[in-house]
Amino acid sequence: MQHRAGQVVLAVALAALVAAGCASSAPSPAPRAADGPLRILSLTPNITEILFAMGLGDKIVGRSNFCSYPPEALAIPSVGDTLQMNQEKVIALHPTLAFVITRRGDVIRTLESLKIRTVPLNSDRMDELLASIRIIGRETGRPDAAEALVARIQAELAAVREHVRGLGRPKTLFAFPMTIGSAQMTVAGRGTFVDQLLDVAGAENAFPDVANWPQISPQRVIAFGPELVIVNAVGDEAAADRQQAIRRAWANWTSVPAVAHGRIVILTEACLTIPGPRVGLAARRLADVIHPPAAADTSPPAAPPPATPGEAAR
Questions:
Q1: Which of 231, 151, 234, 227 is nearest to 194 (CA)?
Q2: Which site among 130, 151, 174, 224 is 20 to 30 Å from 275 CA-CA?
Q3: Residue 2 has pLDDT above 70, yes or no
């Protein structure tokens, strides 16, 4: 996407895809350092959200440029990201533990050379997200907080799935706004965690192939025949004039069932593409859009706010 704010949404969703060609696999973590103050470097938004939800927000000494939730995260110094990291800033922050989502072995080796225990994680799928939460719990000495967060996420997703049980499963395309001047759009392929969220929320992914975040043409969208199109527009893309432009662009494709029936929905929540503690909230938001009549009758329980530092550990 063209705007920087749009990059925030894709920072986690595309992290592994962007780095896939840089290394075949991530090295094993460095040996555990001696016991001492826990000073965490978090280099992706979902890890930062997980740490705050586990009551570890006050242990984060450095974050990526894209870590903006919860709002308290903005007070933490930023050090760039796994594609362009400011090594001098990292050194000055004296982190003892770093969590990263990347297949770039050079990033991990750089952090390890600075004597920082570096733990690579994955979150492309829901099971990987839950496994990563448990790894974070072990690495930080908070296994109980990790299990509590996993249980909460599982319960929220189960509540959404039950909420839509027995309802139809419309073919739904999850897309990002097209870059101005481009004839391609990025969509959620099968096998991604967004594909899994669509399943939980009671929809069939209109994109038929297993793929991370493929770019496709409007002609392929027409061929897929989605009954519902969800466009995730955040940051600059969420501005009123951009939303109007998005709707005008889609209005031209009258042969798409979603267009013909007025089911082009623009959602501005960034959590829809961040595999972290708010996936239950994301699934519920999708369910409300996919099945609006059912959503009007009742809604699953609201997700609790992120824990304050130390709360989850008590």
A1: 231
A2: 224
A3: no
